[in-house]
Amino acid sequence: MPDITWEAPFCQDASNCFRFGTDSDGNAYIAVDGEEDRYLTDSVAALRALIRDIKAGKADHLL
Asked: How far, in Å, CA of 49 to CA of 55, rounded?
């Protein structure tokens, strides 16, 4: 398991909390708060692009 530095949880409300993390190799991670052993990973650039697109409304059709 990589050595991940997790940020504080980001919560929309009490039931939707996610954590973002990074490692020393430049990888980024997303996990549900409390389930950090089950994460998605990609590059920091890919995570940044995902967040930017979500903020721009490009994923609204999924909700």
From this structure: 10
Spatial neighbors of 21 by CB under 8 A, at least 6 apart, are: 4, 5, 6, 7, 28, 29, 30, 31, 36, 39
In this predicted model, what pLDDT tens digit does every residue of 15-30 receive, in sequence order?
Answer: 789 999 999 998 999 9
Q: Which of 22, 19, 24 is nearest to 9 (CA)?
A: 19
Contact 9, 17 (CB under 8 A): yes
Q: Nearest 5°: CA angle at 58, between 54 and 63?
A: 80
Residue 42 class from Cβ within 10 Å (0-12 exposed, 13-18 middle, 19+ buried)?
Answer: middle
Q: Hey, how many other C-beta atoms are within 10 angstroms of the C-beta on 54?
A: 13
